What we know:
- A hairpin with a 4-residue loop joins β7 and β8 (122-125).
- The protein contains six helices and eight strands, in the order ββαββααββαββαα.
- By secondary structure, it is of the alpha+beta class.
- It has a single domain (17-126), classed as 3-Layer(aba) Sandwich (Chemotaxis protein chec).
- It is globular, with a radius of gyration of 16 Å.
- It has a six-stranded antiparallel β-sheet.
Amino acid sequence: MFMEDTSFYMGNILTGNAVHNIDAKGRIIVPAKFREALGSTVFALRSTDGRCIRIYPELQFHKMLAKVCQGDVRKDALRRLISGKAEQLKVDTQGRMLVPEEMRLSVGITEKVHLVGMIEWLELWEEKALSDAEAEVSDEELIAMMADLGIA
């Protein structure tokens, strides 16, 4: 498509952001701009740093599992982490997704959720945690990263 590396994600991309309240039943509204790329079955997994929840489209999650399942027994701990902690979720016909309360609370999401498209997955953030994460990287560092990639 637009990269020489054919291993790059070639599905519908997730870009943009949104903020929504969590309803009384603990459901999160998935904006229409994300629904097509996500599909109706998704997988939720806390990020490795434990600060947000990643929502993977089913195909992307399966690609990740395929990589983890290749190779030796030393990857069993990684398999256990991913498959043991992941939750399969459904996006209903009204565009709502019920993320387990325990998972939401583990990253501080209680009333409001920030949704951030990350090309291959969607991230769910608590407002202050997202603000802190964004503040960790300066504009100069971002410009340097872009220059390293040849996109500045």
